[in-house]
Amino acid sequence: MTRSNDLEVLRRAAEGHLKHRCALAEAEAADVSRLLHELRVHQSELEMQNSELLETRGQLEAALAGYTELYDFAPVGYFTLDRRGVIQQLNLAAAHLLEDNRSALTGRAFSDFVEPDHQAAFADALHRAVIGANHEHCELALVRKSSAETPLFVHIELAPNPNQPDATLRAVVVDITQARLAQEALLKHQETFRAIMSASPDLVYYVDRRFAIQYINRVPAGLDIAAVMGTDATAYVAPEYQSMVRQTLHDVFETGRTGRFEVLARGEHDRPTWYETIVAPVFNGTDVLYATLLSRDITERVEAAQRHKALSQRLVGAQEAARRHLAGELHDRTSANLAALGINFEVAEMALKSGDWQEVGARMHDNRALVQDTEASIREICAELRPPALDYAGLAPAIEAYASQFSRRTGIAVRLECSQTAIKLPAHLESTLFRIVQEALNNVAKHAAAKAVNVTLQLDRETVRLSVSDDGIGFDPVRQSETGGQGIITMREMAEFIGAGLELLTRPGNGVRISVAIPCAEQTT
Question: What is the pTM of this model?
Answer without folding.
Answer: 0.50
